[in-house]
Amino acid sequence: MIGKTIKELKVGESAEFTKTISESDVYLYAGVTGDLNPAHINEEYAKNTFFKTRIAHGLLSAGLISTVLGNELPGPGSVYIRQELNFLAPVHIGDTVTAQAEVIEILSEENRVKLKTACINQNGVTVLDGEAVVSPPKSK
User: Fold this and answer.
1) In which element (H, E) is residue 24 found?
2) Which residues have CB under 8 Å from 29's CB, separation 6+?
3) HSE-CB for 119 with a 13 A CA cutoff
């Protein structure tokens, strides 16, 4: 299965992926990356932070954007080139996060596409936003 080529993409096209962030997701992410910040994995510590409870790693939510880009838009065979991120609000364990990507510019000569990206929680709060640059697959 191959994703959309540069010729098949259209400005305004979008895709999304939704996931509920579990406690297991946070611990697995901490284990895989080595990011054992107690704000993520220690509830007693987290009670004394600004957020008053544990929060998910910001890049765990951002990773959901990779799911959209690699599976949907442009899809399989795409290569992630760059991602700009603005972390706007925390993600808590149990939050449902929807990652979104929308094509905003097509750079045909470079085989690159720019996408507006965001992650939004179940309350409609944008928890992060940014812009991605992806190289779509060259042929099917």
Assistant:
1) helix 23-33
2) 35, 56, 57, 59, 60, 63
3) 29
* Contact (CB, 8 A) for 73 and 115: yes
* Structural domain includes residue 26: yes
Q: Which domain holds residue 32?
A: 14-135
- Half-sphere exposure in the Cβ direction for 101 (13 Å, CA): 31
- Residue 140 is predicted with a pLDDT of 60
The torsion angle over the Cα atoms of residues 103, 106, 112 and 113, rounded to 10 degrees, is: -10
pLDDT band, residue 101 (cuts 50/70/90): very high
pLDDT tens by residue, 28-47: 999 999 999 999 999 999 99
- Residues 108-122 have pLDDT tens digits of 999 999 999 999 999
Number of domains comprising the chain: 1
For residue 119, the domain's CATH number is 3.10.129.10
Residue 42 covered by a domain = yes
- Model's pTM, two decimal places? 0.93
